[in-house]
Amino acid sequence: xxxxxxxxxxxxxxxxxxxxxxxxxxxxxxxxxxxxxxxxxxxxxxxxxxxxxxxxxxxxxxxxxxxxxxxxxxxxxxxxxxxxxxxxxxxxxxxxxxxxxxxxxxxxxxxxxxxxxxxxxxxxxxxxxxxxxxxxxxxxxxxxxxxxxxxxxxxxxxxxxxxxxxxxxxxxxxxxxxxxxxxxxxxxxxxxxxxxxxxxxxxxxxxxxxxxxxxxxxxxxxxxxxxxxxxxxxxxxxxxxxxxxxxxxxxxxxxxxxxxxxxxxxxxxxxxxxxxxxxxxxxxxxxxxxxxxxxxxxxxxxxxxxxxxxxxxxxxxxxxxxxxxxxxxxxxxxxxxxxxxxxxxxxxxxxxxxxxxxxxxxxxxxxxxxxxxxxxxxxxxxxxx
Length: 385
Prior knowledge:
Number of strands: 12
Structural class: alpha/beta
Shape: elongated
Strand order of the largest sheet: 3-1-4-10
Oligomer: single chain
Number of domains: 2
């Protein structure tokens, strides 16, 4: 039958960033959600324009006399909402910020952090695409889990288990409680979290549209301007965040390695192309069971099934905003290694030898590799891994 694979965010305790099927069934899907979850959004350029217009008006009330530190405290307090609140903290921050330049200047950093928290849910987090059959001592990438997390997995019963009684679980039961099953059955679904925010977006869009329509009958320039500011700050222009310009780079923050999008092999399927999300996926898979439902040579399969980046932390950034490498290391470009694996998988999954790359040497290697696969397949050496 083969195992299903799930992309898991260990730090956020979220799954369903992709996967939930055989690896070969989703590997070359769009992966847009995974891609965007690794990128830090930015504020619209309009914010700087608004702040640059004229001078800051002196606020006569007590709020205008507060220091920057106290204003920051007020904005932080707005983030402490209860579960009964109908609107997310982001809206509260925006509503306060649009009242005057002083508060917009103080609030913009808080708004940006909230946008990052909502949209860049996988950035800087431990990520792994876990195979559901991963078990034993290598049930998770070495060093990915803390001692407390390992103990929690071993002592948390599955829903289908019987009561262990006063003595607790025996060794065999603890061994069956794997990280894969713990995450797949116990973590939140990232799609549901974002779904709630998108629902709020839709409701707010309707409310603002109605308010702007009513202002046409009774014009109020200041009120209209504030509503348009709210519209832009919560990202209603395109229903997606605003991001810095490219070209983009996938950074492995744990190992100080990176992949460049502008030199990534050109593979196009339907309406989308292979991106940095696929580059990431090709290096974060992990399982003790090698079934991937893809045609793949052994040397590539081994590096795919137990990826060298599994459990590391990542971020997608623009080329001019690379973060500092890990202390004591320097950034290393591994795009060629990623291209080699992606070309191999594409060539045999899509039966497509027309893989374009500016690197002629890699193209020649790919052609030779394709001939080798054909020869081996005639001997029964190639198959569905």
